[in-house]
Amino acid sequence: MDPAQSNYTTTEKELLAIMFCLDKFRSYLLGSKINVFSDHATLRFLLKKPDAKSRLIWWMLLLQEFNIEIRDKKGVENSVADHLSGIEKEVDSMPIRDEFPDELIPDTEINSVL
């Protein structure tokens, strides 16, 4: 998630996750019935909301390509997902370097074979 996406509302983040999955598995999911279980009840009514942000309208248009049904499932009923969503990821504080001064590219000669 990039810094701009981390500022999204909870509804936008949940819908972003759905859009990410639909994009990754698009070829497998087109033409299939898709049931999405979420503990965020707002998602069910999102497709019927007439006055939404432009980003949400764009995502709703993309969702219409799929035969998708969003169902509400309380976190208590879905204990595995509830547990996994509560796990905090450790932040890797080691910076990523773009330059590697100690790394040498070997000088290779290519001999053509006739």
UniProtKB/TrEMBL annotation:
Domain Reverse transcriptase RNase H-like: residue ranges: 2-66
GO MF term (any one): endonuclease activity
Keyword Nuclease applies: yes
Hydrolase keyword on record: yes
Keywords: Endonuclease, Hydrolase, Nuclease, Nucleotidyltransferase, RNA-directed DNA polymerase, Transferase
Domain of life: Eukaryota
Name of protein: Retrovirus-related Pol polyprotein from transposon 17.6
Gene designation per UniProt: pol
